[in-house]
């Protein structure tokens, strides 16, 4: 037998980044499993994680840098060396910077624990224009959180699902749209007798595990919540002590929700009034160990900001903040009395220019909205953006309306994709830089906030199989060529790690045994009698001063969502447990398990249209149409159809997924600038399409 080793690292088959143990023999990966030392994971991986082997040894991924050799999107490429590719990029970037300033360079990545690399790269080249995928995902949820607690985001609260007694999920398909640890935590909680209430427009795997399932009318969750709040306040079912101590604006909320009775909500949502009352009473009995999970998917309607806000308000009313079985504020190194990682940008001068959407008219809450970046690329206002890095991000596959997007992106002088796959954006870009896969590279060290904060490390397990480079090296080489080498002097990942760890007392070797370094022995809980929030008042603001300052109201009058016209349906979408967005459909294992997506359609509606199960149907929207197989089922609301996102690839080099299934984004025509007017998240679900038998 040759040389064998075990490497602790992080899965990269989706953005969850589960901790993994990789078994390597003679430079070949033989086995990947969940990190057995990681509580809650204990060795488990999902199907996508296990298919990491197939991904690694696939030939249908970029193998060397490529420069476009024809029109954008023509699929004609020239193989080049790294020097040629990097010189080409920096030659263009220098021209752009001279003419428009560093601010004309924008970058969007997937966000997460490693963004210090990309934000520092932008800082080094003088640009404030860092964006992430968040507008396409949970931005409204983050903004709602910020308006109440003063800190923005999903990562800022840990949902202590394991210890909860009642979990309420709104379209949070937690067992399929999964994070392995979270699935284990939910199943543990259910084993211990926790109740699960699931609200969705269709019955999926999560619904099948629920004690209570409401098939809600699409887009009406806000009505449900207003009625729940109405009952909770009227019957004084809330945690009076906690609310009195920590909240501002209760009286305003009380008078606002008086009109929203359960009987009223029944007409909106289709959920019987008595069921709503029962849920409010049930939940209250188990408080504070209850969780209303805001999820992400509800962040896709016009009123999603206020809906997400109402979900957080329900949590607060249950007094479940900073308590076991509730929402625990994520702690960073500082809370554990430790120094944080040193930022790669720590010694760089601050960027003077403001991010491009800070000065936009009609702007939404907060900045860094991707959709606004697109507006700036399109109009050149408030200033031109001429270069765009799509790094570990595929906007053409993940924002609505690929054709409209391409027109916007045509205003760029330079579009670069840094990816491990041929992405839709890569296919339309000027340069593709192949990053080494998660098994072939190390990343900068990241911080995982939580009840017990830790430093986390992705570590190279095998040498790159093709002519690729890790991101730290790509951005270092780019910065050096841009004349910012003094800020990116690194020659190896160890140089970066040592720099990051300076003063923390942690050493590189400390990651050897588990792949991460915990900064606290026990979970850190703040004193619930002395909670301080980052809002202007220091309290949880039902009436938000920040919102008021920006001209937004704190409570929004409910507006009935549009009903589809006859023969039309609301297009909804989501995930399957087998695929990750648009990136895994060509994986040889995963493709075999699920080669294409199907159209969920309600059986009565289907009957009316003469559609039978497994018939081919044509789905159409504003001049575009495509065909797919129907799944005729009673388990979806009649107003909606549903398809799994990520199919219908147009990249011929990915032979297994090419043109398989249908792309939801292609049907989302005209929605590129359709956003929640406050939170700024893309309102994908405000989309209606026609369906007929093909
Ligand atoms: N219509 C519709 N639109 C949607 C959604 C939907 O369900 N329907 N979902 C939305 C949601 S919630 C999200 S989060 C977004 C997701 O949108 P994206 O963030 O664009 O999707 P991902 O598939 O996570 O990954 C983006 C790219 O990263 C690449 N990648 C993966 N691993 C690596 C790596 O290690 N290095 C590098 N350099 N690249 C890597 C992948 O190959 C892929 O091309 O899409 C959103 N858009
Ligand atoms: N396997 C797998 N897991 C993943 C991912 C992946 O790509 N693959 N991606 C990760 C990412 S980035 C994200 S954001 C999460 C997403 O996680 P979720 O938000 O839990 O999941 P989605 O699958 O996007 O599904 C959303 C659900 O919302 C429902 N829905 C649509 N409209 C309404 C409505 O009006 N009301 C209610 N109550 N429900 C509605 C849909 O029917 C669907 O079941 O998953 C994460 N986990
Ligand atoms: S959820 Fe699955 S694919 Fe995503 S990181 Fe974890 S094991 Fe990998
Ligand atoms: Mo997401």
Describe, in plain words, how this protein is organized in 3D.
This protein is an alpha/beta fold and 694 residues long. The chain folds into 4 domains: 4-56, N-terminal domain of TfIIb (Single Sheet); 66-136 and 339-518, Rossmann fold (3-Layer(aba) Sandwich); 161-325 and 536-549, Dimethylsulfoxide Reductase, domain 2 (3-Layer(aba) Sandwich), CATH 3.40.228.10; 568-693, Beta Barrel (Barwin-like endoglucanases). The protein is built from 23 helices and 27 strands. It has a 7-stranded mixed beta sheet. The model has no long low-confidence stretch (mean pLDDT 96). The site of molybdenum atom (MO) has 2 residues, from loops.
SSE diagram, text form:
Layout: E1 4-10, E2 19-25, E3 28-34, H1 47-50, H2 52-56, E4 66-68, E5 77-79, H3 82-100, E6 105-109, H4 115-124, E7 130-132, H5 139-149, E8 157-159, E9 166-170, H6 180-191, E10 195-200, H7 205-208, E11 212-215, H8 221-234, H9 240-246, E12 247-248, H10 250-257, H11 262-269, H12 273-286, E13 290-293, H13 304-317, E14 327-329, H14 370-379, E15 387-391, H15 395-398, H16 402-409, E16 414-419, H17 424-428, E17 431-434, E18 446-448, E19 454-456, H18 471-484, H19 493-501, E20 516-518, E21 540-541, H20 545-549, E22 568-574, H21 588-593, E23 598-602, H22 603-608, E24 616-621, E25 624-633, E26 640-644, H23 664-667, E27 688-693
Parallel strand pairs: 6-7, 6-15, 9-10, 9-13, 10-11, 12-21, 15-16, 16-17, 22-26, 23-25
Antiparallel strand pairs: 1-2, 2-3, 4-5, 4-17, 8-14, 18-19, 19-20, 22-27, 23-26, 24-25, 24-27
Helix pairs in contact: 3-18, 4-18, 5-13, 8-11, 8-12, 8-13, 11-12, 14-16
């Amino acid at each position: 037998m040759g040389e064998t080793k075990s490497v602790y690292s992080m899965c990269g088959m989706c953005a969850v980044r589960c901790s993994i143990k990789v078994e390597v023999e003679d430079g070949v990966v033989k086995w990947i499993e969940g990190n057995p030392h990681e509580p809650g994971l204990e060795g488990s991986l999902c199907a996508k994680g296990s298919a990491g082997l197939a991904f690694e040894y696939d030939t249908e991924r970029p193998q060397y840098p490529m420069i476009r050799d024809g029109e954008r999107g023509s699929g004609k490429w020239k193989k080049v060396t790294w020097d040629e590719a990097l010189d080409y990029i920096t030659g263009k970037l220098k021209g752009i910077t001279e003419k428009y300033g560093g601010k004309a360079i924008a970058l969007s990545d997937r966000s997460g624990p490693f963004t210090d690399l990309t934000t520092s790269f932008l800082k080094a080249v003088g640009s404030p224009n860092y964006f992430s995928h968040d507008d396409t995902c949970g931005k409204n949820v983050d903004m709602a959180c910020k308006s109440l607690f003063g800190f923005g985001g999903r990562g800022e609260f840990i949902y202590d699902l394991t210890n909860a007694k009642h979990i309420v999920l709104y379209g949070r398909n937690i067992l399929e749209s999964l994070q392995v640890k979270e699935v284990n935590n939910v199943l543990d909680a259910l084993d211990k007798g926790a109740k699960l209430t699931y609200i969705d427009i269709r019955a999926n795997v999560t619904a099948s595990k629920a004690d209570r399932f409401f098939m809600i009318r699409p887009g009406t969750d806000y009505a449900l919540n207003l009625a729940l709040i109405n009952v909770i306040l009227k019957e004084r079912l809330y945690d009076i002590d906690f609310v009195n101590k920590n909240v501002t604006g209760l009286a305003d909320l009380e008078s606002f929700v008086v009109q929203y009775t359960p009987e009223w909500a029944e007409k909106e949502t289709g959920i019987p009034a008595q069921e709503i009352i029962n849920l409010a009473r049930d939940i209250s009995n188990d408080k504070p160990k209850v969780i209303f999970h805001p999820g992400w998917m509800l962040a896709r309607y016009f009123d999603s900001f206020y809906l997400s806000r109402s979900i957080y308000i329900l949590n607060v009313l249950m007094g479940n903040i900073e308590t076991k079985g509730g929402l625990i504020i994520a702690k960073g190194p500082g809370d554990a009395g430790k120094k944080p990682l040193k930022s790669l940008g720590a010694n760089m001068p601050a960027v003077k220019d403001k991010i491009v959407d800070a000065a936009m008219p009609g702007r939404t809450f907060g900045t860094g909205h991707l959709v606004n970046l697109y507006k700036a690329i399109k109009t050149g206002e408030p200033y031109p953006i001429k270069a765009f890095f799509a790094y570990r991000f595929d906007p053409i596959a993940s924002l609505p309306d690929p054709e409209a997007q391409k027109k916007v992106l045509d205003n760029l002088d330079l579009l670069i994709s840094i990816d491990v796959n041929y992405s839709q954006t890569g296919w339309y870009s000027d340069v593709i830089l192949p990053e080494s896969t998660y098994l072939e590279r190390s990343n900068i060290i990241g911080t995982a906030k939580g009840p017990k904060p830790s430093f986390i490390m992705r570590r190279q397990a095998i040498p790159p199989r093709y002519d690729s480079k890790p991101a730290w090296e790509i951005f270092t080489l780019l910065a050096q060529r841009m004349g910012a080498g003094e800020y990116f002097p690194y020659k190896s990942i160890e140089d970066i790690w040592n720099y990051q760890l300076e003063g923390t007392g942690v050493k590189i070797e400390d990651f050897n045994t588990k792949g991460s370094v915990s900064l606290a022995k026990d979970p850190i809980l703040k004193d619930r009698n002395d909670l301080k929030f980052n809002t202007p008042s220091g309290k949880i603001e039902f009436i938000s001063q920040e919102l008021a300052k920006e001209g937004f109201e704190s409570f929004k009058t409910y507006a009935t969502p549009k009903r589809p016209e006859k023969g039309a349906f609301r297009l909804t979408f989501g995930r399957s447990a087998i695929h990750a967005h648009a990136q895994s459909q060509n994986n040889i294992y995963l493709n075999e398990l699920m080669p294409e997506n199907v159209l969920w359609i309600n059986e009565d509606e289907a009957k009316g249209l003469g559609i039978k199960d497994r018939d081919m149907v044509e789905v159409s929207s504003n001049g575009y149409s495509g065909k797919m197989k129907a799944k005729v089922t009673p388990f979806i609301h009649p107003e909606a159809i549903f398809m799994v996102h990520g199919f219908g690839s147009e990249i011929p080099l990915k032979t297994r997924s090419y043109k398989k299934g249908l792309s939801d984004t292609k049907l989302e025509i005209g929605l590129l600038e359709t956003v929640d007017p406050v939170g700024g998240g893309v309102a994908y679900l405000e989309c209606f399409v026609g369906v007929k038998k093909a």
